[in-house]
Amino acid sequence: MAAEVTAYQRALRSGQGALRRAFLEAARRLLVEEGPGALTLRRIAGDVGCTTKVVYTMFGGKDGLAEALFTDGFERFRQRLLRVPAQGDPVAHLRALGVAYRQNALAVPDYYRVMFEQAIPGFVPSEEARGHSRAVFEILVRAVTACVTSGRFSADSDPEEVAHMLWASQHGVVSLELAGYLTHEAAERQHAALLDTVIGAHLTDRVF
To answer: Using an 8 Å Cβ cutoff, are 141 and 160 in contact?
Structure first.
């Protein structure tokens, strides 16, 4: 009977990109199912079906793997925001980006915790990794800027400050929802209300 093909062997046949994804998926699964204590190179290598040397060679150790999870999470987030269709009204587009923030967090809560809630104790993202988070934030800053330049937002609205206010309010609701302190229905209502409050505070015509 033929030997069972491991995840490592399958990924290896598809190239380095598939191999990297296999390691990240194994790490994500261990983090979610067993907690950060299970996130070791030995466990990840065992799950994928290779030696720890292969994981070390690709990521340079546990910190490198944690950074890869952090970066991958923000890249997924960036792609999710870029898929939000542009709309004729920049305010509607900005609000849609806010909705996408929560949708992304609920779709990949494990990545969200790595990105925003220090799910891996001791892990500190490098400046390069933080650059990925900044690239995502800039999507929101540009959307706020469009609201200002179109005249929908007050001319003295600071795009970066407004973007931070939006992220801070959304993060609060999403974190409470993921921790089980808010039901899905309550979180949806409160998230929408906070979006309307922050956006409404800067509108020139108070019409969404």
So the answer is: yes
Nearest to 68, CA basis, from 56, 81, 83: 56
The letter for the amino acid at 29 is R
Is the domain of 169 the same as that of 205?
yes
Structural domain count of the chain: 2
Whole-prediction pTM: 0.82
Domain of 49 in residue numbering reads as 12-60
CA-based R_g, the chain, Å? 20
Residue identified by tokens 């199912």 is 33
Q: Are the beta carbons of 40 and 62 closer than 8 angstroms?
A: yes
Q: Is there a domain that residue 5 lies in?
A: no
Three-class SS of residue 203?
Answer: strand
Q: What is the pLDDT of residue 21?
A: 85
Assess whether 115 and 88 both reside in one domain: yes
A 10 A CB-CB count for 3 gives 6
Neighbours of 130 (CB within 10 A): 14
